[in-house]
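Incident review: delayed structure delivery

Summary: a single-chain prediction request sat in the queue longer than the usual turnaround. Root cause was a stuck worker, restarted by the on-call engineer. No data loss occurred. The affected request and its eventual output are reproduced below so the record is complete for anyone auditing the incident later.

Affected input:
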Amino acid sequence: MRILNSRIEEMGKTVPVERATGEFIGISKIAKSDLREAKRLLNALVSDDPSNYYDFIYQSLSESGNLAYSFTNGLKWTEIDDIRDLRYAESIACIAAGARRRF
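Output delivered after worker restart:
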């Protein structure tokens, strides 16, 4: 993903890493005021191709300038695609849970 001036300029697996400013990690929230437009965009997206990724609607939603995002640099996170990823996620979740108990 490439964000420029608080708008998503490019997203998808075709964005070169050296040009990317981040990666969508699958955690999102749509404001109630944007919900109607999000539904419209999602319906259009899947009517074009039912296998489209839902997160592509965020590029269009960002054109209104109401995009908020968080950087994950230095934070423990992972995507889970297979059993190895799940085991890794479980291991870092235990680290995070242990850290919370110390505070």
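Verification: The mean pLDDT is 82.
Action items: add queue-age alerting; document worker restart procedure.
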